[in-house]
Specification:
The complex is a heterodimer.
Chain A (H helix, E strand, L loop, with lengths): L2 E4 L5 H11 L2 E8 L2 E8 L2 E7 L2 E2 L1 H7 L6 E6 L12 H12 L14 H8 L6 H15 L5 E6 L4 E5 L7 H21 L7 E6 L2 E9 L2 E8 L4 H22 L1
Antiparallel strand pairs in A: 1-6, 2-3, 2-6, 3-4, 4-5, 7-8, 7-11, 9-10, 10-11
Helix pairs in contact in A: 2-3, 4-5, 5-7
Chain B lengths: L2 H26 L6 H16 L9 H15 L5 E6 L3 E7 L4 H9 L8 H13 L4 E9 L4 E8 L2
Antiparallel strand pairs in B: 1-2, 2-4, 3-4
Helix pairs in contact in B: 2-5, 3-5
Classes of the chains: A alpha+beta, B alpha+beta.
Chain lengths: 251, 156
């Protein structure tokens, strides 16, 4: 099953992790304003990477600095050549060591990205709900595994909601999601299973995912019946982490 | 119903509110606060449709004043109230509320009260009339001075 989206929603390390779990051979292709990039995974190992004028480990290092662009992930893509023979963790560690030395690969955009907007928001009047709404819009535009989403406070406040069905009482949905969070959290406390991370409810026509963004705010996602749960979880994790940063900055 | 029976009924009603709040808190924790708006929405509907009492106001301060007048002057469930309005918050201070005993008992146990006519109706009315998100940011109960302080944030 192929997947596509934007790097603003799923980071390159997360993409590689997904590719490593997907199957025998997977290709990750990234298109940015400064060129096209490709990374090949075989049996969970990154075996080749190629970018503009660079290949092998160096290409991996550069790819890990990409922040904007579109990607697609294709199973069954055979690497044209083998240029890397290192475990992924070692590659990642080396890349992290290089990050301080390497210049970040920027794409040229006339319209500010969401990340840039997130920075801008710190210097202008705080409109938390607008920023969150934009993030949810982007998520739903690019995701094939999440068809509806909302960010709600545990006291039932709706920061933003994007649900496919009309005539939904968003206030009630928020209150019920908060109750699911409260019950799940209490259950985990009683059974001494650590901290609440997420709850998944399966219906005959789809799923509802409730995930903690921080102790006061939760992310709610609607997933279709035919969903890749691993992908959906990864997307929910990524967007929740991003929302957590925004909410932290605006508190 | 005799006066004594009426007093017993009053105690029973308060016991039910206390039990409901504590029981829900034990199950849901802080997420119990999510019912503030949904309960308030139903209460507001009963007030407006069945009791014929309109909670109106073109701005948060006016809205809160109308809620205060409704509960203090018309229904007599508290002695007095006053309102504080800042840029993005509006607060209601209630003096000698009839339900003070319940709320204080809950607060003593570390439970944030979430069933209170002022709180529930104000939350629902603010969300409905101001066409925006509202959240409760403070609910202090001070049994010594017999005052409650409810503060709402009006989000952009």
């Amino acid at each position: 099953m192929s997947m596509q989206g934007r790097l603003q929603d799923v980071s390159v390390p997360d993409l590689v992790e997904l590719a490593r779990q997907m199957g025998e051979e997977v290709g990750v292709f990234i298109e940015t304003a400064v060129g096209e990039w490709a990374l090949y995974v075989r049996q969970g190992r990154v075996v080749h990477a190629q970018g503009p004028d660079v290949s092998g480990e160096e290409a991996v290092h550069r790819m890990l600095t990409l922040r904007t662009g579109t990607f697609r992930m294709e199973p069954g893509e055979t690497p044209p050549v083998i240029t890397i023979d290192k475990p992924w963790n070692a590659l990642l560690l080396e890349a992290l060591q290089h990050l301080d030395e390497e210049p970040e690969v920027h794409t040229q955009r006339s319209i500010p990205s969401i990340e840039e907007k997130e920075e801008q928001v710190m210097t202008r009047p705080r409109k938390t709900r607008e920023i969150i709404a934009e993030i949810l819009d982007e998520l739903l535009e690019t995701s094939t595994d999440i068809v509806g989403a909302a960010v709600v406070g545990i006291e039932g406040l709706i920061y933003s909601a994007r649900f496919p069905l009309k005539d939904m009482d968003e206030n009630l949905i928020a209150a019920v999601a908060a109750a699911i969070y409260g019950l799940s959290r209490r259950n985990i406390q009683q059974l001494r299973q650590g901290e609440f991370v997420q709850a998944l409810i399966e219906g005959s026509e789809g799923y509802t995912l409730v995930r903690s963004i921080n102790p006061k705010v939760i992310f709610v996602a609607l997933l279709p019946k035919e969903v890749n749960l691993g992908m959906a979880f990864a997307e929910a994790r990524t967007v929740s982490a991003r929302l957590a940063e925004i909410l932290q900055g605006l508190q | 119903m005799t006066e004594e029976q009426r007093q017993q009924w009053d105690r029973l009603s308060q016991m039910m509110i206390y039990g409901l709040e504590k029981g829900l808190w034990n199950m849901l924790g802080e997420a119990s606060l999510a019912v503030v708006g949904t309960v308030g929405q139903e209460m507001l509907e009963v007030l407006e449709k069945e009791w014929g009492l309109q909670v109106e106001g073109s701005d948060p301060k006016e809205l809160m004043a109308n809620i205060g007048q409704l509960f203090v002057e018309k229904m007599g469930i508290a002695e007095s109230f006053d309102i504080e309005k800042e840029d993005s918050t509006v607060a209601l201070r209630v003096v000698k509320c009839h339900l003070m005993g319940i709320e204080a008992k809950l607060v003593e146990q570390g439970i944030q009260p979430f069933l209170c006519p002022f709180l529930n109706i104000a939350m629902a009315a603010l969300r409905k009339r101001m066409n925006g998100a509202t959240t409760i940011t403070q609910f202090d109960v001070d049994p010594e001075s017999h005052r409650c302080f409810l503060k709402f944030a009006l989000l952009e």
